[in-house]
Specification:
This protein is an alpha+beta fold and about 350 residues long. Helix 5 crosses helix 10. Strand 1, helix 9 and strand 2 form a beta-alpha-beta unit. It is about 65% helix and about 10% strand. The longest helix has about 90 residues. It has three domains: about 130 residues, no CATH class; about 70 residues; about 120 residues, Heat Shock Protein 90. It has a five-stranded mixed beta sheet, with helices on one face. The radius of gyration is 36 Å and the shape is rod-shaped.
Length: about 350
Amino acid sequence: MTLRFRTILAESRKSPASVEQGGLTMNITVGEDADRKISARRDMVLIAVIAIVAAVVCVKFNLSEALLKWTRPFERLQLDELPAVLLVVAISLIWFSSRRYFEANRQLRFRRAAEVQLAETLTENKRLAQQYVDMQENERKALARDLHDELGQYLIAIKLDAMSMRESMTADPGVHDVARAMIANIDRVYGMVTGLIRQLRPVGLDDLGVTAAIEHCVNDWRSRLPLVTIEMSLTGEFEALDETRGLVLYRLVQEALTNIARHAKATRVQIRIAAGPAADSGRCIEILIADNGAGADLSAPRPGLGLVGMRERVSALGGSITLASERGGGFQVKASVPMAGAPS
């Protein structure tokens, strides 16, 4: 992103006309314009006061005659020409400062135009990221439905056939053994399919809501991690939460628990999710997930994309996420997601 920003600045310096032709406008607020005018007036008043004071002093003390008198003994040094030289230096400094001022002002305009373009690029990236996440969730939903409706039904039909073979009185004993083995294998495959469906689509999200889906996810991990104490607190109103934000909450909890199971070696996990009133569009959902595990060095490069995915999901909804950890000090994830009205 830094490289992109530098590229925009370089292009703006090379061709300022192209920046203006791109439809970029200066977002200067009324307050900033008013402050600039007040500052300019203040400077003009100060210059006028100084000039008047200088004129009064020169008239009162006849500085020109006094200066001529002081420099007459040093006529060989041409000190009487010093005022003209100082006047030329002053004019040159005024010209130099005005050139620097206009150049700085021009660079500031280009920088502001580049910042506007960068902000538009970031907004577009967020929108594309959210569209990608929505597309991914829709594909997962369709795949989970196909696995449940198609493959699940075929497995049940095969199991029923195998059960008929096992219960058949005319079949050979060997056929009965094969049927029992088929039933056992079908049960294992069905269990794997059920697990895949749960990973692809939260159980109960469409019918019971995000609260039930998160509780089911946490209970599932409690059964997988019997030595880990998982405490969960859900407070607030989640009924009116849209599907996108509900999925973000669920994926945050799911990814955090997955990372804890893989890397943390924790014995205690705390999950807190608090939401404001549904009618208040300015409120946010606050998420806290912390463990007492081995922790991690956040400055070290991480090969996985789980934390990156969490950050992208939250950022796409206009939220924020903070990670805190140190070696041996556990891991903490804090996230804030707007209840509604965030840019997506």
